[in-house]
């Protein structure tokens, strides 16, 4: 019993002494550091070059060279077609589909309408069915169904010049995309709507 008590006393004194040393270390005056943390920016991932209209750029998720990126680009493209029809302007379509004949035709229609003071009313596109993209090296092909709402071309007075009064509920469509290493994005090589 005597050894147990002596060990207990030694342990208690040891803890008290250690606590005193620690507390004494905290009470000593410490000088302020004379160096400050660096103000240099932390390394970041490389930013993507701008692509698409400044107020409607191609989103980052559509700029990956994989199936998810190709499908995201298709969804962006449909939204871009809807947007540019209301402007109307074909510039963005030419930028993203310079090799696509149907894209250039649509862009020309939008530009001709703008030059004549005409505009499109309606005609919104939406995706129905999108197949998994088929990717072969730098190309992706996607088949999809698209719904087109009724559309009219009207002049500055609102007179209807051309109209498709009925919706097209499921246009059998497709897009071929090509990967641009320079733009780090998919671009449209071919596009068929209906």
From TrEMBL:
Spans annotated as Disordered: 32-52
Domain of life according to the entry: Bacteria
Compositionally biased spans, kind Low complexity: 32-49
Designated name of the protein: DUF3828 domain-containing protein
Phylogenetic placement of the source organism: Bacteria, Bacillati, Actinomycetota, Actinomycetes, Geodermatophilales
């Amino acid at each position: 019993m005597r050894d147990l008590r002596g060990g207990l006393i030694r342990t208690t004194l040891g803890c008290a002494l250690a606590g005193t040393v620690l507390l004494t270390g905290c009470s000593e005056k410490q000088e302020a550091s004379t160096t400050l943390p660096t103000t240099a920016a932390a390394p970041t991932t490389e930013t993507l070059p701008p692509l698409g209209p400044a107020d409607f750029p191609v989103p980052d998720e559509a700029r990956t060279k994989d199936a998810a990126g190709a499908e995201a680009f298709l969804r962006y493209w449909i939204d871009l077609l809807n947007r540019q029809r209301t402007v109307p302007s074909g510039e963005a379509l030419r930028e993203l589909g310079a090799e696509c004949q149907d894209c250039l035709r649509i862009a020309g229609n939008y530009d001709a309408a703008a030059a004549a003071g005409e505009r499109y009313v309606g005609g919104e596109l939406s995706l129905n069915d999108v197949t998994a993209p088929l990717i072969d090296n730098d190309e992706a092909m996607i088949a999809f169904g698209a719904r087109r709402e009724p559309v009219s071309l009207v002049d500055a007075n609102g007179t209807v010049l051309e109209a498709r009064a009925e919706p097209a509920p499921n246009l059998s469509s497709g897009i071929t995309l090509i990967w641009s290493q320079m733009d780090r994005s998919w671009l449209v090589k071919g596009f068929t709507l209906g």
